[in-house]
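Internal QA ticket QA-208
Title: Verify multi-chain structure generation after dependency bump
Assignee: T.L.

Test input:
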Amino acid sequence: MTMSTLKTAACGLALLAAPLAANAEDLVVNGEIEMITETEPAAHLDGAVPTVRSGWTFRASETQQLQMDDFENPAMIDADNGMSAWNTAEGAEGKSCADCHGAMEDSMEMVRATYPKWNEEAGEVRNIQMQVDDCRVNQMGAEPYGLDSRPMLAMEAAISSVGRGQVVDVAIDGPAAETWEMGKELYYTRFGQLDLSCASCHELNYDNYIRADHLSQGQINGFPTYRLKNARLNGTHSRFRGCIRDTRAETFAVGSEEFLALELYVASRGNGLTVEGPAVRN
Amino acid sequence: MADNVTPRVRVPRDAAAGDTITIKTLISHPMESGQRKDSDGNTIPRSIINRFTCDFNGESVMEMILEPAISTNPFIEFQAVVPESGTFAFTWYDDDGSVYEESKDIAVS
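Actual output:
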């Protein structure tokens, strides 16, 4: 669909359903959180793409609308569950997340926008999920959720939801530089029998069709993402896994060093976009 | 048994008398149909919301019987005419006997 027909379709919809979004080219959630869905690429992208675009801009208007209202966004049920888990005491220490961190809206606002991040004490790059499980085991004395498990994704969705509208700005210099370089290397490495790298689809062919689906730039600012395909939240690493599997390769494991590096690199490609998670995609 | 069942409702805060308003409700529920089998071949017992009602100031606005084909997290949207200020009361009835309730006030000018 060209941009002009898209516009017409969006206008038609707006006429039929006046209270819905007037123009599907602007993403405003709940009528108050304004999102940046297209922006100038960061310097470290070296002109690889002319414009950085959120996955939202590639979706059909019906899917786009689902994300514009928390009531319609099916992922918000999980985010609510994550929010109540935040306030629930668990484990040997009898503490909840809120006992140390306070209200999620205050303490977690900038988290989604800046992770994965170098953790000085641990001497490694960590994503949100690793940090949550570390907290659960070492601070709360509770069982870890497990990466990309349902309660973990719910917690990540809640943390992400309070950071919506913040501009993604992951640090790629200093101690994180080595991991970032590794991620970049992986992004441009061809995998599998189909001999495809991430860049083959998401840098060179975004906006084209891959069979019946519209290829996006593969930005991860909307993760954890509710996919209509499986009607649940999906984690970044599981998504990477699906992509690499589709190239007919042996994939890396969820939580592996490789995927963490790739997560940091792909997140950095989206620097300048806003946090949308939990987003709604195909 | 269904865990984490949370009802949510959206009703406009105010309206003019005689206005037709749109009400949206959503309840998180697995809506297990009773037709599926687990990995050992045993039937997973049916567990659904089987009835939903909406009352306004004690008067019935709508009532709905839900069947097993309705998918997870039932989303029900309907319209109602509001003659006066009052309270909408929403009730969901679960197969396991649980009843989930939610209410919303509306100011009519």
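Spot checks passed. The first helix of chain A runs from residue 3 to 16.
Status: verified.
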